Amino acid sequence: MTGTLVLAGTPIGDIADAPPRLTAELAGADVIAAEDTRRLRRLTQALDVQPSGRVVSYFEGNETARTPELVEALVGGARVLLVTDAGMPSVSDPGYRLVAAAVEKDIKVTAVPGPSAVLTALALSGLPVDRFCFEGFLPRKAGERLSRLRENEVERRTLVYFEAPHRLDDTLAAMAEVFGADRRAAVCRELTKTYEEVKRGPLGELAAWAAEGVRGEITVVVEGAPEIIESLDAEELVRRVRVREEAGERRKEAIAAVAADAGLPKREVFDAVVASKNAARPNP
């Protein structure tokens, strides 16, 4: 008879948030696969529990190589507990490969629900929570980050991202550029910890705030794209940009304003303006 794979959520800050079942699973599992065995030791000490099973490391660097070993233990009937440093395994943490491999072998997979930075930040953000999507960490390189954000530019659902503190200012600036400086957002820092902070406001203001330096673990929640208010053809978009330019606005600001009014990506309005300009040029 095959064993069971248990995905266990661990506290993202306050140790008191540990679910009661976590203690029992830590004490009774045959194998505990931990993202960081040192953090696991601190967790078990804080919970006053002594694991009886074998403890192995399971992190990004050895995930591929160690998965077959854990699957073999599961096939042999072991109860394998998977824990990461904080939150739920598989959510921007190791776990997906092991779950997929266990499912392929028809091994039972269950979970000990626990704290989640994604859901906690979403609930605290003050932004719509009825529909949302989780984007994880954005690429580190500026060009790749902009490309990913442009993929989300017209996403109507609330967006949730993880980010490293030293990249937060660049990320918020890029979001303000792509989504618009007035798009509402919330930066959630050190959730459930002593210095928990939720900073809410337009992306432009948050980018300026983050430029001074921010510490801690960060989750960013961004309002979804506005509903398309009206359907406008390229000619009308160009006309509206021209009207704003004639009133004294710079082209970049005029394009951003027209896009916001129409609920369209800035790129679409920009392309319409460029196409109109090219069409107006006399043929050589």
Topology:
Elements: E1 4-8, H1 20-28, E2 31-34, H2 37-47, E3 54-57, H3 63-75, E4 79-83, H4 96-104, E5 108-112, H5 117-125, E6 132-137, H6 142-151, E7 158-163, H7 168-179, E8 184-189, E9 197-202, H8 203-210, E10 218-222, H9 234-246, H10 251-262, H11 266-280
Helix pairs in contact: 3-4, 6-7, 7-8, 9-10, 9-11, 10-11
Short description:
The chain has helices at residues 20-28, 37-47, 63-75, 96-104, 117-125, 142-151, 168-179, 203-210, 234-246, 251-262, 266-280; strands at 4-8, 31-34, 54-57, 79-83, 108-112, 132-137, 158-163, 184-189, 197-202, 218-222. It is α/β, with parallel strands linked by helices and 284 residues long.
Describe the model.
It is a single chain. This protein has 284 residues and is of the alpha/beta class. The chain has eleven helices and ten strands. It has helices spanning 20-28, 37-47, 63-75, 96-104, 117-125, 142-151, 168-179, 203-210, 234-246, 251-262, 266-280; strands spanning 4-8, 31-34, 54-57, 79-83, 108-112, 132-137, 158-163, 184-189, 197-202, 218-222. The strands form two sheets. It has a five-stranded parallel sheet, with helices on both faces. Helix 6 links the parallel strand 6 (132-137) and strand 7. Helix 6 (142-151) packs across helix 7 (168-179). It is elongated, with a radius of gyration of 24 Å. It starts with a strand and ends with a helix. The mean pLDDT is 93.
Category from helices, strands and their pairing: alpha/beta
Q: How far apart lie the N and C ends? A: 79 Å
Secondary-structure element order, as H and E?
Answer: EHEHEHEHEHEHEHEEHEHHH
* Helix content bin: 40-55%
Largest beta-sheet details: 5 strands, parallel
Integer-rounded radius of gyration: 24 Å
State which percent range the strand residues make up.
Answer: 15-25%
Strand order of the largest sheet: 3-2-4-1-5
Shape: elongated
User: DSSP helix count?
Assistant: 11
How many DSSP-defined strands? Answer: 10
Spans where pLDDT lies below 50 across 5 or more residues: none
Average pLDDT score = 93
